[in-house]
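Exercise 7b. Backbone tokens:
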């Protein structure tokens, strides 16, 4: 056990003090102009603000009563980060004098630089502060670095020092310190802001903040940040933490110091031990986690239904209708997703890194448009592509269906898994060649057309046609989790031919191989979609082998529905006690289901009793699922 852990068990932590904060809820009839992720691209930021009449030729405020909003990440990577921050500080003063306002929310890169995560600071960014440190200070830091690396040869040590801590390193640290000119300003900024009916934040809305108020999100996370920075300064003042040690190295560095102190005197309890304990605890604070509002990417990346519940929940709690975010680049184009609930404004402004283009979102009343640098016309955000087949194969569902139906069979081989012995089929059509999976088990041929349906008998059916019905059902509610599947004969035998899902791992193998679930999209939020779908289609054969994850980003895919579509109007047994959650977005699509639509799409595969039962289970979901109302 690490000494840190032992010390935490022995001593515990002190309470974090409360503090005042600037308002983070604003209502105005004036124009609101917002932008995201500048990353030091000062010239492009100034130019786009000039083009929308927010600043003049001297980069002074000319926007009158306009409200200007930044969703964070003013700094890191680009050469002019300091100029960007100082510009926003100046514009804040000038706008207030003119009756307007400048609002900035913290991004992860502001928090990183303040807290000592310097991975993305460029040499020119450091150089902007080189005049604010002395040679003597750098020599003293070099000596500390030398003491911390006693086995490193002198030449190697100096080269490493200059590479890791270029001129300006100490000046930058001083500027972003809690009492520094830039740090003091940044520490007063919120993490989430409401202006009229829009929330503005850097990352996104995770499960952990969906039930919180804006006050809680801002006050609690800022308290942790301020306390962390206070502890860093206290440990530096105590002479036990060097300025060259970054966020990621502080615990081990201090643990070594604590271990040495205890070795010298087992009863020693220096005053700085308590600060070390609190610092170690705060490194695990929510603010620094992937779920925090400055880091979370699910709102930008993950399944619309999986994200809609938490997004709707916070929007309703805060009285907003949409959230505007940055953090996740889509170079060159602003995107809208979740049926307008989310606008992604990180268009890759720093061209040297992201190859994108500066953009602003302009809102006034019901008017809303995007304007790009050098393009005066008004644009609407691009609607995000969500179709599964388009994402996986670059073609539409209709094109994939045609390929599966018309592609020439090149090869058929046994897969060797599954009780029904499915086969892998290689298809070729023109330049396209791909795999498909062929299933042909059918315990009740022609069941869909029989005059009578026997629940006792037919609710045990194992039918390949249900795989096609599962695909059709998935698309009717726009779930986009099931691969395209069609009816086709292969080697003289009719069955269900489904698009092959390559680069996936099933949940059984993932667990056995101890693969960490490291995607941006929370596993439980994706499982909630699976549960709703399985209840809707009464699937009683969901198991660890037919839950698939795309490799790398762990996005859910669902296969094998040949034991679904029972005529029962209740939940499958494995889901009887699970709480259901349903966003308005998903609810609206479920409500579009009616007998006419279901008959048109499913009568070739299901008996009328089975179709009727779908509507019964749909009503059960609508009745029993928790909604997003506060």
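Sequence design result:
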């Amino acid at each position: 056990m690490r000494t840190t852990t032992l010390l935490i068990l022995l001593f515990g932590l002190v309470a974090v003090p409360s503090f005042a904060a600037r308002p983070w809820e604003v209502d105005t009839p004036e124009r609101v102009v917002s932008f995201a992720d500048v990353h030091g691209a000062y010239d492009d930021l100034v130019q786009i603000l000039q083009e929308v009449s927010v600043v003049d030729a001297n980069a002074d405020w000319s926007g009158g009563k306009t409200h200007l909003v930044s969703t964070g990440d003013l700094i890191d990577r680009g050469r002019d980060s300091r100029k960007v921050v100082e510009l926003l500080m100046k514009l804040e003063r000038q706008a207030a004098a003119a009756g307007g306002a400048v609002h900035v929310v913290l991004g992860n890169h502001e928090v990183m630089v303040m807290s000592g995560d310097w991975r993305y600071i460029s040499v020119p960014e450091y150089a902007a502060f080189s005049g604010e440190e002395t040679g003597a200070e750098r020599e003293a830091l070099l000596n500390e670095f030398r003491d911390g690396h006693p086995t490193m040869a002198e030449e190697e040590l100096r080269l490493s020092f200059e590479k890791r801590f270029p001129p300006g390193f100490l000046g930058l640290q001083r500027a972003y310190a809690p009492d520094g000119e830039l740090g003091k300003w940044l520490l007063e900024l919120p993490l989430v802001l409401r202006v009229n009916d829009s929330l503005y934040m850097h990352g996104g809305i995770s499960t952990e903040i969906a039930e919180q108020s804006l006050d809680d999100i801002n006050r609690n996370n800022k308290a942790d940040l301020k306390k962390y920075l206070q502890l860093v300064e206290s440990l530096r003042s105590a002479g036990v933490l060097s300025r060259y040690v970054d966020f990621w190295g502080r615990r081990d560095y201090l643990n070594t110091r604590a271990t040495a102190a205890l070795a010298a005197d087992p009863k020693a309890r220096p005053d700085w031990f308590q600060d070390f304990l609190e610092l170690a605890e705060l490194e695990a604070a929510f603010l620094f986690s992937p779920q925090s509002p400055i880091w979370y990417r699910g709102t930008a990346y993950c399944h619309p239904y999986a994200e809609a519940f938490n997004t709707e929940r916070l929007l309703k709690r805060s009285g907003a209708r949409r959230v505007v975010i940055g953090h996740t680049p889509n170079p060159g184009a602003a995107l809208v997703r979740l049926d307008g609930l989310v606008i992604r404004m990180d268009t890759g402004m720093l061209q040297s890194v992201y190859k994108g283009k500066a953009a602003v979102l302009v809102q006034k009343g019901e008017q809303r448009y995007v304007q790009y640098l050098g393009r005066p016309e008004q644009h609407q955000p691009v609607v995000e592509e969500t179709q599964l087949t388009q994402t996986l194969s670059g073609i539409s569902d209709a094109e994939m269906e045609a390929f599966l139906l018309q592609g020439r069979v090149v090869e058929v081989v046994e897969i060797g898994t599954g009780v029904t012995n499915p086969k892998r089929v290689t298809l070729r059509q023109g330049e396209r060649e791909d795999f498909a999976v062929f299933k042909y088990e059918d315990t009740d041929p022609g069941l869909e057309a029989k005059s009578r349906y026997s629940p006792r008998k037919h609710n045990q059916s194992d039918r390949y046609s249900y795989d096609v019905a599962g695909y059709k059902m998935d698309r009717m509610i726009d779930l986009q989790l099931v691969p395209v599947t069609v009816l086709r004969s292969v080697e003289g035998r009719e069955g269900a031919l489904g698009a092959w899902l390559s680069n996936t791992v099933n949940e059984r193998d993932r667990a056995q191989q101890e693969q960490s679930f490291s995607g941006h999209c929370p596993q439980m939020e994706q499982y909630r979609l699976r549960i709703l779908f399985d209840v809707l289609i009464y699937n009683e054969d969901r198991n660890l082998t037919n839950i698939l994850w795309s490799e790398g980003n762990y996005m859910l895919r669902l296969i094998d529905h040949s034991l679904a579509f029972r005529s029962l109007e209740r939940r499958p047994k494995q889901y009887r006690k699970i709480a259901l959650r349903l966003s308005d977005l998903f609810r609206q699509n479920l409500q579009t289901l009616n007998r006419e639509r279901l008959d048109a799409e499913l009568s070739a595969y299901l008996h009328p009793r089975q179709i009727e039962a779908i509507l019964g289970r749909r009503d059960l979901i609508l009745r029993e699922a928790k909604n997003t109302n506060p």
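Instructor comment: The chain is about 40% helix and 15% strand. The first strand starts at residue 25 and ends at 26.
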